[in-house]
Amino acid sequence: MEIGFLGLGIMGKAMSVNLLKNGFKVTVWNRTLSKCNELVALGASVGETPAEVVKKCKINIAMLSDPAAALSVVFDKDGVLEQICGKCYIDMSTVDPDTSCKISEAITSKGGHFLEAPVSGSKQPAETGQLVILAAGEKALYEEAIPAFNVLGKKSFFLGQVGNGAKMKLVVNVIMGSMMNAFSEGLVLADRSGLNPHDLLDVLDLGAIANPMFRGKGPAMLQDNYSPAFPLKHQQKDMRLALALGDENAVSMPVAAAANEAFKKARSMGLEDLDFSAVFETMKILKHKS
Ligand SMILES: NC(=O)C1=CN([C@@H]2O[C@H](COP(=O)(O)OP(=O)(O)OC[C@H]3O[C@@H](n4cnc5c(N)ncnc54)[C@H](OP(=O)(O)O)[C@@H]3O)[C@@H](O)[C@H]2O)C=CC1
Ligand SMILES: O=CC(=O)O
Description:
Blueprint: E1 2-6, H1 10-21, E2 25-29, H2 37-41, E3 45-46, H3 50-56, E4 59-62, H4 67-75, E5 88-91, H5 97-109, E6 113-116, E7 119-120, H6 123-128, E8 131-137, H7 139-152, E9 153-158, H8 164-192, H9 197-206, H10 212-222, H11 232-248, H12 254-268, H13 280-289
Helix pairs in contact: 8-11, 8-12, 8-13, 9-10, 11-12
Bound molecules: NADPH dihydro-nicotinamide-adenine-dinucleotide phosphate and ligand LL5AMS7Z.
C-alpha cells in the first residue's frame, strides 16, 4: 500500500519512518521541505505540495501542529482538496471537533473519504509503533487503514462520527496536562518541605498513582532536562481546545483552567518549544520568589 504522509515534525517523522521500515511505500511532504531528506535516505519519495502527494497516493495521512495548520494544508492553494476526489485522507493531528468536521465536509463533498485519527502516546511510542489511535469518521476507510494502524499503534479505537476522535483526544490530554501540573507542584512541595524529590518519585512509582508519565518524565525534570517529546505549546493548545469543549457543554473545569494558566505562564517564559514537563519551571520560579 502506498501512503502519502504530510507533516514531518516530531510525530510525523517517527510515524513515517515506522511505515517505511515495515514495508510501506511512503511519499512525504513537509512545509519545510528540507525535513524530507532524512526520509528520502530511508526510501521515501517526496511530493512538492500536499496536492502532489494526494494525486499520487490513495491513502494520505496528516500529522500537523494545530487547527490552523490542519486547515491550511487542506484548503490552501496546492492543498489536499485539489486532488482529493476518489482519495482517502486521515488526519491524525490533535485538533478540535469543529475543525475536523469542517475538513471532513470539504473532503467528502469533493468525493474524497475522511477519517480523523488523533493519537495518544508521544515520540517514543510513535517510534516503536505503540500509539493508541482514536479514529472516527468513515468506517470503511478505518478498515482499509488497519494495516497501517497496526504498524503505528498498539490499539485502535473506532469511535463513531467525525468529532468523536478529536473529543476523546482532548479529554485524555486535559487530564494529562492537569496531572503534569499536580506532579510538578508535588515535586516542588517535596523539595521545599525538606524531602528528597527523588524519594518522592520512588514512593509514587510503588503506589496507586504510579504511571508511565511520572516514571518517564520525573527523573529528567529533576535534572532540568526538557528535551521535547511533546512540545509545551501543543499541550497548551490541547488545554485551550478542551476548555472550549467544556464551555460548549457547560462543564465546569477549574482544575484544567488552573493548569492551562500554568502552561500559558510557561509560554510567556519562552518555554513553548520545550517538553510540556517544563511547566515545572513556572513553579520553581514561584518557589524562589516566595
Ligand atoms: N509530540 C507528541 O508527543 C504528540 C503530539 N501530538 C499531536 O500531533 C501533532 C503534531 O505534533 P508534533 O509532531 O509533536 O509537532 P511538531 O511541532 O514537531 O511538528 C508540527 C508539524 O506541523 C507542521 N506545520 C506547522 N504549521 C504548519 C502550517 N501552517 N502549514 C503546514 N504545516 C505546518 C510543521 O512543519 P514545519 O516542519 O515546516 O514547521 C511540522 O511538520 C500535534 O497536533 C500534536 O498536538 C499527539 C500526540 C503526541
Ligand atoms: O498528546 C500527547 C501525548 O503524549 O499523547
